[in-house]
Amino acid sequence: xxxxFVRHRRSKRVIATFTVFEADLLRSLxxxxxxxxxxESAVVPIxxxxxxxxxxxxxxxxxxDDPVLRRLxxxxxxxxxxxxxxxxRYTESALRDGKARAxxxxxxxxxxxxxxxxxxxxxxxxxxxxxxxxxxVWMRAFTDLRLxxxxxxxxxxxxxxxxxxxxxxxxxxxxxxxxxxxxxxQETLVGAIR
Length: 194
Prior knowledge:
The chain is mainly alpha-helical. The protein has a domain at 6-42 and 97-193. The protein has 7 helices and 3 strands. It has helices at 20-39, 50-54, 67-72, 81-112, 132-153, 160-165, 171-193; strands spanning 6-7, 14-19, 125-130. The chain has a 3-stranded antiparallel beta sheet with strand order 1-2-3. Strand 1 and strand 2 (14-19) form a beta hairpin. Helix 1 (20-39) packs antiparallel against helix 4 (81-112), helix 4 crosses helix 5 and helix 5 (132-153) packs antiparallel against helix 7 (171-193). The chain is globular and about 55 Å long. The chain starts with 5 loop residues before the first strand and ends with a helix. Pfam families: DUF2017 (PF09438).
């Protein structure tokens, strides 16, 4: 199991070594997030004319139906539905694209580090080295992944006793272990880039 991220001794880069299982799990979670972000009709199709695409403010004006997407894209104005709709129309498409790019960066870095398309060896490890800018992108992706998984699991503050009382073979307990592992990775990444 990975020991988390650490700062490289001679540079500003941060490094981590993942088992092939861990790296493949991260890739899978990031891919699922990208799919979720691009699966709703709220994503504006890419126009052929770049100027027209830049001036297209036909984004969504209502909250997404999916609870994860509602958590990732909350209303900016809780007491003003019209202002919230306007804000969402002008910003949500770009925010979705940014979150999808961050998750895609996680996938790209893992694959560039040697994660094969179909991992087979249990003893294989993947060494990941992130420059400061890429480390910030990974932190954003970890935040989104934790929000998504925590929302699906309905994790609440102070409910640790419930999660620890579940048997290890309960799928909810296993998913919660992944949620905590993502938190551990995020925490070590924050510590390594300070």
